User: What shape does this take?
Amino acid sequence: MIAFALADLRRLWAASLTIVLLIALATALGVTVTLQERALRLGSARAADKFDLIVGAPGSETQLTLSSVFLEPAPLPLVAGATLTKLAADPRVAWAAPIGFGDSYRGNPIVGTTTALIAGTTGGFTTGRMFALEGEAVAGAAVNLEVGAELHPMHGSGAAGDDGEVHAETTYTVVGKLQPTGTAWDKAILVPIQAVWHIHGLGEDHDHAEEGEEHEDEAGGEEHHHHGAIDADAPLDEHFDRDLPGLPAILVKPKSIADAYKLRQEYRTGGGTLAVFPAEVLTRLYATLGDARTVLMLIAYGAQGLLAAALLLITVIHVTQRRRQIGALRAFGAPRLAVFGIVWIELLGLVAIGLAAGFAVGYATAEGLSAAFAARNGFRLPVEFTLGDAGLAAALLLVAGLIAAIPAALAYRLPPVEALRS
Amino acid sequence: MMTLEISDLAISFPGLASPVLTIDHLALEAGGRLAVTGASGSGKSTFVNLVSGLGRPDRGRVVWRGVDIARFSESQRDRWRGQNVGLVMQDFHLFAGLTALDNVLLPARLAGAYNGEHKRRAHDLLSRVGLARPDQRIETMSRGEMQRVAVARALLRRPGILIADEPTASLDPEAGSAVGSLLTELADSEGATLLVVSHDERLTERLGRRVRLSAGRIVADSALEVRS
Assistant: This one.
């Protein structure tokens, strides 16, 4: 029966191929949407994984999250440096680290921070070591710099159209390269926060509160401002117990979940601060994205439904066209069930091949989109199938089996005499 | 050996006033040779359908060796036909994309009756009908060769009945004559009852008995003429 069905499909190869292609494309559409949406969710959940609580100045919670977790360049209001001093001394806090943006090197953001943040959010070094002097830098896994390389930071994000000035008098030396984390931070060059302050003439003998105000739109990189220079050989100072300049964001690692909620409550309202759980902000974002996904999925289902109807039409016509063949099979003694089986297996076989191809094409497309995303944003969105996808494939096959049973039943009911006469 | 006895048979089609075929009585001895002739529309094809179990009469009995197949259900008739009847048709009804050998074996396979012996027999039958290449694809064969394959297929399961419906009508005279000879020779050597519907006189003359149909009735029967 199967050999006959195969010979039949070989004979009708052009039509079979067309049907397989149609099914593959309709399936690929749905699979790509599902995979890509999941990849986005997984990818950013992974990115936000190490970011328990972020404290910044009052403003957009979403922007604070996107800028800290995804290093998206945007002008952030600055939170008073005293907030970091207070958080660092808080007994509920395991560690609190500043995140200072503003400079970049060849499209890689330079982030001023502390050894605690690097130790707490990455898996360690592939080569080299942690920075120990003001002029040393640690490169993320996706940064095209090796240990020993030297770089001059540039003010601004370095994106097209953003012609920032180069801090020519400042040189960082890469002393370590981090293991990949699969997040946007893989593209970042991490330097001691004090270096960022010094480059921008902060944290010296100025009135820090005013400095903070003056540099509110620093990340935009527009204004020309006075700079200082770093003292490349100065030792690290990570004791934030004195007056500090304003900061775009502070990453806080609470000691427990209960502490996390208490801290957020405390820093959420009033006191000139904003505290967010990035995971929560992202979840809210996905709820919005989810609606878009629902629309896309409905379109994909609609396409599949239309295709199923078209296929049903094609196959019913097909059975009518091969009445003679079916009649002959019966005349020579093939049982009705064998006739049913041939028609059913041929159709289901085409659908199964189409589905498999569709899943493959969908996966490849999602991978391609992910790669394009990675090229632009520095981290990969993980494309993976889940058990639920197998369930979906099984459900589609089941539906295909039921639909294929209609023409098969037509063939089953065809009286051989009439079939031969036509 | 299969005897045939038809009695009190009638079949009508919807929309036609008179029955398409009415046979009060017709008997054929086991291993007999019967040719059915008649103009088109005389009921020949209906006759083939009824004696092969493809169709079912409105009334009457079609008894092959004591078994009335007119009372069978469709599935029972399919099974019975597969086991007892070898069919050869005007249009061959071979399946493109399969080899000669696979075409011969296909009905047995689809009926779930296939065993290793069938393959040996298929090779044997193909060589007996004069085909040397069992692995040749059907669509590359001449019409005469195709009908030989059809004859081999008809005989695969050692049917007691061989029914041929205009087996030579779509062949040139030479090929038609060869197929006609094959049918009678193989029916003889296999001991099958042979029933041929044809208006090819060179073929019908080879057969012992001729029945002529007209307007759904038997109007001449050579067996009765001899007797009377």
Remarks:
- The longest strand of chain B covers residues 4-11.
- Residues 173-190 of chain B form the longest helix (18 residues).
